[in-house]
Amino acid sequence: MISRLIFDSDLRKFPEYLFLFILLSYPLFSFFSWEFLELDTMKALGLVCVSLVSIKLILIYKSNETLSVPYYLIFFGLFTGYTIICDMFKTQIFEGRELKYFYSEPIWLTFIALIIVENVSYPHKLMVIAKHVLGFTLVIAAIVSVIQVSNPLFLINNDVLIDGLPFERIKQYYENATVSDVGSRANLSKVNRFLDGYRLSIFSYISELSVGIDTVAICSILISWKPIKVVNTGVAALSTTIISFLSSSRWIMLNCVICISQIIWSSKNRLLSLFYFFISLVFLILFSIAVASYMGMDVEKYFSERLMSDSALTRLLAFEVFFKVFPDNPIFGTGGVDTEKMIRLIGGRSSQIHVGFLKLLYYYGLFGGTLYLSFMVSLLTRLYKRAKFSGFWGGFYALLTFFVANLTLVEFSLFYYGPLLAIIFSNHFYRRKKLCEGGESFGLRESIDNLSISG
């Protein structure tokens, strides 16, 4: 069925199908990139994205095709340009990477990937297949998370750990590890999070944040699919709850609740849906605890040492330090550099200013911060309007949770396969609803929302 859909289409669409296939199989793609090609996953996908945009631009030059550029992408393009300038003259990152920069820098790659997702379209039959693939991925991810309770090394990218040792020996070896023992501060952070019980499920070959950002985005896509099927929605919500609970990350648990809560806000009887939501949430949490206990997890220790830990103090520290260092470079920021003053004020109590939006203003000032926040607002507004029209809220909630996450962590790049898929699905259902209505205003509506560049 998949092969017939592909080969019955214009061959020029093949790169678009390849892009969708890579996104749908991204955890597997990441595993093979690391294990067999010894290539960083982001660089592998980055090469694909840069190639696809190049092909699209060639087609525009040779034909009458157009390139759709939504207004949110203009804001992000300006922000991306500013970060590139900073990397050239402030951080020296560009000088160190040269051409590699353009397939390894996450903010730049986010801009390229967003151009792609706004300029691809797929048959509805293929999107139905994609939905089933994502559902299967979520179930497998939940099962792997459960297995990792008793076997922490299962399907883990342990490139920073000593090979061949059992978990207990690894724990003893790295118990008092320093930066010199693991090569870098980033590697030390990975080791410490691993020893603290952060479970990354099938996403460890992508990045540490992928388990939260991509899982929640996939769940958002699945539970937004109309018509709603109780069994499918329940399986998606249960799988996401298990992954979130076992991840040991509070920001992921919060995003899981926000994502699943869309069932309430998109329903006609919100009061009744709210009641069912809380009942279901309690059941999902209790079921996750029961599964974790059965697999040998010390749940009491988990609640006392992880969920109730004082790591939230690092966020308070972030505000304290920010208000002392921000006035030094309020307009253009530090250009992506951690100043000596900031490092001295942090004093080893945290690795950075641990609140995304504060770090944004510290790094890029009011100028860069305004560009990024304009991008955020315009993207969410666009997704909200499309969701209200089409009835598919998956894209809006997937991106909403990403920006909410930046209240407690630092991640400016959207170069994650879950959010990218969520935008693709959002655009698909918007176009599908428009075509079903047969409205002549479709082209006009699109031109108002986008700038179109043609050859």
Features:
single chain; 455 residues; mainly alpha; two-stranded antiparallel ribbon; 23 helices
Provide an overview of this structure.
This protein has 455 residues and is mainly α. The chain has one domain (10-157, 200-299, 312-435). Helix content is 69%, strand content 2%. It contains 23 helices and 2 strands. The chain has helices at 2-7, 14-24, 26-35, 41-62, 71-89, 93-97, 106-117, 124-150, 167-173, 179-182, 185-195, 210-224, 230-247, 250-260, 262-265, 270-294, 299-307, 313-325, 340-346, 356-390, 394-405, 417-437, 442-449; strands at residues 66-70, 450-454. A two-stranded antiparallel sheet has the order 1-2. Helix 12 runs parallel beside helix 22, helix 14 (250-260) packs antiparallel against helix 21 and helix 20 (356-390) runs antiparallel to helix 21 (394-405). The radius of gyration is 22 Å and the shape is globular. It starts with a helix and ends with a strand. The model is unreliable at 440-444 (pLDDT under 50). It is found in: Membrane. Its main location: membrane. It is a multi-pass membrane protein. This is O-Antigen ligase.
